[in-house]
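fyi for ur records
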Amino acid sequence: MKRLAIAALTAAAILPAVVGARTEDPETAPELSVHRGGIVFMHYCVNCHGLTADGNGRMAKLYNPRPANLVTSDKNDAYKELIIRRGGGAIGRSNFMPPWGEELTNEQIKDVIAFLRLIQKPPQN
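which gave:
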């Protein structure tokens, strides 16, 4: 129940920006990309990376190393795309991170990266 409430709050925080988006092509609005990316994240990533993307999903305790904390990640968008497409093992990271390149479309990958960019906290100095 608590997780559902958090997911609802996350959607509620993003939805006003999506509804208020005004661009020439609504399908390419950055706010819509973030919204769609949140949906992809909730469907494919949340079990390992967690509702708050902190690496503490339901399945996280089964893995060593644990899933990455995506909120504090210092990886750039190109790196994130590579690990999403090819999986962790293909780039020398955890074999538990599956390759999603055959499952997700290019747009879905771009959208989930936009979502991750939105929730990422700036580095602490």
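The helical segments are 2-19, 30-49, 77-86, 106-119. thats all i got for now
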